[in-house]
């Protein structure tokens, strides 16, 4: 029975099933100590097979190439590129970032080269990598989301889209879509219809109940959910009494948001059947594992790329080492949180 | 080596360099854990940090910077961008296996202004720090040399710790035989660090302090303006580094007197790699080209590329009335 997991067959089955109903008990792992154990850390989402579940988050990894002399990009599961809009965007005036305790605020304003230039200037390089390319898509209106996808549909080598309905730093659009379940449904449904590649939806954490939005996106046809984007925050210079960011508020990211983001990933994983991609403050293997155990089928490294470009590659190795030590495949870790029935119910409801 | 001798060779390579563009720095950067060789206190709250990194020291060019990371701290996450002040060959050991004089040590001149620099000031010889560099588009000869040859003199204009970006280009220019002069402004004379390093490179130095404790009383742009007015027939090339207000005033003088001017900009940085877009400044251009990254397209820009006519600069909120973190951006 256990040996079958190595064939990948059961891995596939467990992917299809809802996280809560997985039948294995990962406690002891693959017990026969003498047998060589090769951990499987591949992950499959919406029919796309990723060589591992360690990805880099949109806006923290450029278009990949910037890191190519520092790490081996081929070791990553996927690269989610900076948010792409139908037309180039200039972004916000400075100051755009501010460091906070164990985190940072940013209000970049989605400066990007636009969909067409992405296809001609950035995608050809990304296509050469073993890491999949996921394109984060941003716009101000449903029509523009669709238009952006239609442009990007011409691109070869895109594994999936990540619909950004959660950017907190643009005048309208963005988070507006992500903080009204009706609008979430509308934009996801329209985008799903337009998208040639699988559609992941990146949710905003700046909502009262994440499960409402997770379900809204799921029912509108999302293939997977990425959560979370940044938390809206601010900082003030007490000498000048000015905000630290031109935009006044910005998105908080980094290790300080991890417990809250992890809770939201856990809640969403309980609420929907589609796969969850977890992100928020991941900088160590332990962080990533918490997300997997909470139900994420892949994770994204974000802010850590800024101060430690080697993080993502280190996490790939760290995950393999953990799986080896525990004699568990990734599929057996995902959603394997052990709680009493009472606690499970509370966690999902809170 | 001499810049002049290399000029024709460099001009031949001009296209190659411009083609390299923003990725020029990426080819030769290293992400390393390096050892602190020395962390010497200077006047005021200034320090000179020396770290051992032969690879980065040999790859570094004038005007470039490195991102320094305090290890083992979860509260200070981001690296601090530090101008590469000087490069030193460490003569004390193992000279045999390399050509003499090849640099092994990078020096960073910094002032304690915030939490990050306070932690830096506590570094001891033998401690380890993370160092990512060399980064950025510095004072690259192939771009300014034609203008330098047309100039009677190169004028370096430094505001406070901005001096840190100017020593290496001044050294390079001095080796090539250019005449140079330093205008250096600080709040008090305690800010005049690095003056002795500059002295052998320049024909003269004009100092200014806001409190009058040394040199002119007032901003450094006053002696600069007097100098430019007095020698209005001469041609100069200005190289400027300092806080936003001082940069803007210096650039305005250069414009008024018709001299080309290079500025080394500073801003808060998230990554130094060109991906976070946190350090962008407004430049001439439209659309997504309206902002350029200080870490990648800069830190050195021709002054007419930069849009100065905006209410406040990226570090205005940290300018002189702010006692807390006046230069946290580049050196914090």
Give the total of domains of chain B.
2
Q: Could you give the order of strands across the largest sheet of chain B?
A: 4-3-7-1-2-6-5
What's the total helix number of chain B? 10
Report the biggest beta sheet of chain B as strand number plus sense, adding barrel if it closes.
Answer: 7 strands, antiparallel
Q: How many individual β-strands of chain A?
A: 16
CATH topology of the largest domain in chain B: Rossmann fold
CATH superfamily of the largest domain in chain B: Nucleotide-binding domain of ferredoxin-NADP reductase (FNR) module
Roughly what fraction of the amino acids of chain B lie in strands?
A: 25-35%
CATH architecture of chain A: Alpha-Beta Barrel
Distance between the ends of chain B = 34 Å
Secondary-structure element string of chain A:
HEEEEEEHEHEHHEHEEEEEHEHEHHHH
* Backbone structural class of chain A: alpha/beta
Q: Low-confidence spans of chain A: pLDDT under 50, at least 5 residues?
A: 1-26
Number of strands of chain B: 16
CATH architecture of the largest domain in chain B: 3-Layer(aba) Sandwich
Which regions of chain B contain 5 or more consecutive residues with pLDDT less than 50? 1-26, 315-332
CA distance, first residue to last residue of chain A? 37 Å
List the helices and strands and how they pair.
The complex is a heterodimer of chains A (350) and B (332).
Chain A: H1 9-16, E1 43-45, E2 48-50, E3 54-56, E4 78-84, E5 97-100, E6 103-106, H2 115-127, E7 132-137, H3 142-152, E8 158-164, H4 175-178, H5 181-194, E9 199-202, H6 210-219, E10 224-227, E11 231-234, E12 236-237, E13 242-243, E14 249-253, H7 258-271, E15 276-279, H8 285-294, E16 296-301, H9 304-307, H10 311-326, H11 330-333, H12 341-349
Parallel strand pairs in A: 3-4, 3-16, 4-7, 7-8, 8-9, 9-10, 10-15, 15-16
Antiparallel strand pairs in A: 1-2, 5-6, 6-14, 11-14, 12-13
Helix pairs in contact in A: 3-5, 5-6, 6-7, 7-8, 8-10
Chain B: H1 3-12, H2 14-20, E1 30-41, E2 46-52, H3 54-59, E3 65-70, E4 80-83, E5 86-88, E6 105-111, H4 115-121, E7 128-135, H5 141-150, E8 153-159, H6 167-175, E9 180-186, H7 195-198, E10 204-209, E11 216-217, H8 221-230, E12 236-241, H9 244-257, E13 261-264, E14 280-282, E15 291-293, E16 300-302, H10 328-331
Parallel strand pairs in B: 8-9, 8-12, 9-10, 10-11, 12-13
Antiparallel strand pairs in B: 1-2, 1-7, 2-6, 3-4, 3-7, 5-6, 13-16, 14-15
Helix pairs in contact in B: 8-9
